[in-house]
Write a structure and sequence with these properties.
By secondary structure, the protein is mainly alpha-helical. Among the domains are: 2-30 and 55-127, Orthogonal Bundle (434 Repressor (Amino-terminal Domain)), CATH 1.10.260; 157-174 and 187-295, no CATH class; 441-501, no CATH class. The protein has 24 helices and 2 strands. It has helices at 53-56, 59-69, 74-81, 85-92, 101-111, 157-172, 193-206, 217-232, 236-252, 257-273, 277-293, 297-313, 317-328, 331-334, 338-357, 361-378, 385-388, 393-406, 410-418, 428-445, 448-461, 463-468, 470-482, 487-495, and strands at 2-6, 17-21. Strands 1-2 form a two-stranded antiparallel ribbon. It is globular and about 65 Å long. The model is unreliable at 1-55 and 126-186 (pLDDT under 50).
């Protein structure tokens, strides 16, 4: 039975109705902590008012106090609830949101906390215990669940792929109306490359382009390597031809689920760069389903990271943090050795940037320090170079530049950038991002000349990306409108297709 109840915990918005499986009655209002009055209006002074300290505590504080009272370690509680010790610590300290009802129920049952102390309705026998609720890096999607390729479908991988593509068509229909922005007069060919790339990816994902021929997996694997190199080199003109063809061909291949997942992850990253969140959600969802069907936990975790990025861009910060941290705690990553450790570092790094958007500089720096520690444990080698832009001490420092600026401290962002040698970054794409982030920090600080110089450096490293990215166009437009122009500014404005006088 499912009933609507009102969560009474102080951290919940007042009066918000919530649904609890098996709840049969409303949570009773908490008793007032004010001294009672006799009927004649005199205060009852014969007894000291009892203050309910639990009512003033956050869920994390209640959990931490109870755990310590029971002499339980973070690791032990984590094993009982499906979280790592680090994640339990974050939940207790309020660094991760603890507002999800299933999470509250899980900790209440693991520690024997009366549900009312966490603002929950009493638990009935119909409610599942914590051991039956496994931590998932993704919310459930309203699409059919695929079986293991070659098993539930009678050993026919072609049939499995057709089923997968049919499932994807449900979400593809939502993107059919997405318009492609027309080019402005005076735009350079490179400034229009982004639009060309987006249009090609959209058609390939929706199956609107010319029919692809059957291609052997080894050929597709070679194309994926070349497309990844194009992305890392910011070669948009080549990527605009190669990646849509790769995605379309992957739809027709037999058994290449993991390969298609990587192709869709690459598409998601470029769509995020080009500010196409609708198609980005679609590509990330495709990547997740292909990765799950292909048994590729590294790709599953990377899809979680990309969905967290998109959730953050939509302003869903709590959801983004949950996606990233839950995926980082997936035991499947720990079984993959150094690559799994590096992927976990990327997810922690993503969580740090999300916390920056919540203007929590202390929390952002704590998570960044955790990611840095992971990078240092891996040594000086850059990991995941071909799939995620790389993970190393330098890439963590690069994210810190943007995070400090996002949290509202451009001087700290510039200091972080000064401590980073661009040559230490693993690709042209990362180096260009370094200079673009540096330009954003200078712009926020009001230092126009330094901002323009940083943009010119980004253009030197990656002209096609710099000219095509909407974020650069927006930055250049702001410079044109906010003060004097210079020949350098007018030049980059012309090359990015930004209209100017």
């Amino acid at each position: 039975m499912t009933s609507s109840v009102v969560c009474t915990h102080p951290s919940c918005p007042a009066g918000r109705p919530v649904l609890l499986a098996g709840a049969s009655e409303l949570v009773a209002p908490r008793e007032s902590t004010q001294p009672r009055l006799h009927r004649d209006g005199d205060m009852d002074t014969g007894r000291k008012p009892q203050v309910n300290t639990t009512a003033m505590a956050t869920p994390g504080e209640v959990v931490r106090r109870t755990r310590r009272t029971r002499g339980m370690t973070l690791a032990k509680l984590g094993a009982m609830t499906g979280y790592s010790a680090a994640q339990v610590s974050r939940l207790e300290r309020g660094k991760s949101a603890m507002t999800d009802l299933s999470v509250l129920q899980r900790f209440a049952q693991a520690l024997g906390i009366p549900p009312q102390e966490l603002g929950l309705a009493p638990i009935t026998n119909a409610q599942p215990g914590p051991s039956s609720q496994r931590t998932r890096p993704y919310p459930e999607l309203p699409t059919p669940t695929l079986g293991t390729p070659g098993h539930e479908d009678g050993g026919d991988p072609v049939r499995t792929r057709r089923q997968l593509l049919a499932n994807l068509a449900v979400t593809a229909a939502a993107a059919m109306g997405a318009p492609v922005t027309g080019s402005e007069p005076g735009e350079t060919e490179e400034a229009r490359l982004g639009e060309t790339l987006v249009a090609g990816l959209r058609d390939a994902m929706l199956g609107l382009g010319p029919a692809a021929s059957d291609t052997p997996l080894e050929v597709l694997a070679g194309e994926l390597r070349r497309a990844t190199a194009d992305f890392n080199d910011c070669a948009y003109s080549s990527l605009a031809l190669r990646l849509p063809r790769l995605i379309a061909a992957g739809h027709r291949s037999t058994g290449g689920f993991a390969l298609s997942a990587q192709a869709y992850l690459l598409a998601t990253r470029i769509l995020v760069k080009l500010d196409e969140p609708q198609l980005g959600w679609m590509a990330a969802g495709h990547a997740r389903q292909f990765a799950t069907a292909g048994g590729a936990p590294l790709a599953v975790a990377e899809a979680a990271r990309q969905q967290a990025v998109l959730a953050r861009k939509a302003g869903w910060h709590d959801q983004a943090l949950t996606l990233a941290l839950n995926a980082a705690d997936d035991p499947a990553l720990r079984a993959l050795g150094s690559t799994g450790t590096a992927q976990r570092g990327l997810l922690i790094q993503c969580a740090a940037y999300t916390v920056a958007h919540q203007r929590d500089q202390t929390g952002m720096r704590e998570l960044t320090a955790e990611a840095t520690s992971i990078a240092e444990s891996l040594g000086s080698v850059t990991h995941l170079r071909d799939t995620n832009g790389g993970f190393s001490r330098a890439t963590v420092q690069l994210h810190l530049v943007s995070a400090e600026n996002t949290v509202g401290d451009p001087s700290a962002a510039i200091a972080a950038a000064d401590a980073l040698a661009p040559q230490a970054l693993p690709s042209t794409e990362r180096r260009a991002l370094c200079y673009t982030d540096r330009a954003k920090a200078f712009a926020q600080w009001g230092r126009r000349d330094e901002c323009i110089r940083a943009l010119l450096q980004a253009e030197y490293w990656a002209p096609q990306e710099t000219h095509a990215r909407p974020a650069v166009k927006t930055l250049v437009s702001g410079l044109l409108l906010s003060g004097r122009t210079t020949p350098e500014l007018r030049g980059i404005a012309a090359r990015t297709g930004v209209l100017h006088g």
